[in-house]
Amino acid sequence: MTATTHRFERVTSRRTLREFLALTDRLYAGEPRYVPTPRQQIRRWWRDGISLYVLRDPTGTVVGRTTLHTDTAFDTKLGRRCQLFGLTEFTEPAARPLFDAITAHAEPDRDLLFGPVALLPNQAGGVITSGYADRGFVDSAWNPPHYVTAYEAYGFHRRFEADTWICPVPAPAQPKPPMPTEPDGGRLELHRGDLRRLDDQLGLLREMLNASFAQLGYYTPISERQLRRQTDGLGYLLDESLLLYLTRDGIPVAFVLCVPDISEFLVAVRGNLHVVNQLRLLTSGRRRYRREAVLIIKGVLPQYQGRGYQRLLSAHLHHNLHTAGYTTLRSTYVERDNVASAAQYRRLGGRPLHGYTFYAKER
């Protein structure tokens, strides 16, 4: 950073927090492809002690923003002491001063810069590297091409390259597959979401999620508290037919969770889900935003992978999407070496939507 021309300032007041939030309103004014992180979520992180920073140009105008935070579990996973950063946005000229500031203000014992993450790779964040013509969506990134240029010109290198996916939802060619009897006599049952039992079902999903994703290089286990924070308000949006899981002899073994895509609503309200906008979403918007869906997460317990369980769930999900009138399914990022997961989207007629990556840089 050029200290005489830019100032990197920690957010310690509500006034500066408003400036932090307002930056994306200016950067993405009239840009429907960028889907903002809900402001209420960012305020909650700030109240929880996550360090937010703004970068001001010589006139005092905010031209960049970022978090600086750490996570012990992620350090353990990577075997490095990582300085995480996220919610990172900037004007094109502000890229280098912002990266200078992130480097300068990283904790002294951190040996790797990693981001952007909000707050971890298994939650949100990332940078798209292709597919700029297509809009972003809930829990996924959208950014202009100069972000990639800026990161890589500064010496960041790509980590965990992936793709998001988009699939049409045509009429299924086959009827819903029956629940097969396993060769060893195991009994499979299909379950769907139930708002009356949502807390219990989310607990089951968390256990399966942590077990099935543990082998991924970026994944850190989600605690019950984190899950509750991440799914806060899910009950108001959940389409019960889009939460499916399988049990084998009564034990949960595979799952998929989709939600109606409210991205256009978030764009329209600039990410401000205050009470009035929540009511608008629940009344006029609830039916309107059940035309497209986002696949948030899916998985199979490691000991049961390769048995076709996810394919079975995918077939039932396809029927449920079509029956409910959905026309498009988008998926959050899938790493490029996860061939089996990508194959399921190809079977649905899908295609990669955005190239996706996180960035790392040695200090």
For the terminal residues, how far apart are their CA atoms?
Answer: 15 Å
Multimerization status: single chain
Contiguous helical run count: 12
**Morphology call:** globular
Order of secondary-structure elements: EHHEEHEEHEEHEEHHHEEHHEHEHE
Uncertain runs:
none
Helix- and strand-based class?
alpha+beta
Mean pLDDT: 92
Radius of gyration, taken over Cα atoms and rounded to an integer in Å: 21 Å
Largest sheet properties: 10 strands, mixed
Beta-strand segment tally: 14
Please give the structural blueprint.
Blueprint: E1 7-10, H1 14-27, H2 39-47, E2 51-56, E3 62-68, H3 72-78, E4 82-84, E5 89-90, H4 95-105, E6 112-115, E7 127-128, H5 145-153, E8 157-168, E9 188-192, H6 198-213, H7 224-230, H8 234-237, E10 243-248, E11 251-260, H9 263-268, H10 275-288, E12 292-300, H11 309-323, E13 328-335, H12 339-347, E14 351-362
Sum this structure up briefly:
By secondary structure, the chain is of the alpha+beta class. It is about 35% helix and about 25% strand.
Describe what this molecule looks like in 3D.
The mean pLDDT is 92. The chain is globular. β2 and β3 form a beta hairpin. Helix content is 33%, strand content 25%. The protein starts with 6 loop residues before the first strand and ends with a strand. With 363 residues, it is an alpha+beta fold. It is built from 12 helices and 14 strands. Strands 4, 6, 7, 8, 9, 10, 11, 12, 13 and 14 form a 10-stranded mixed β-sheet that branches. The chain has a 4-stranded antiparallel β-sheet with strand order 1-2-3-5, with helices on both faces.
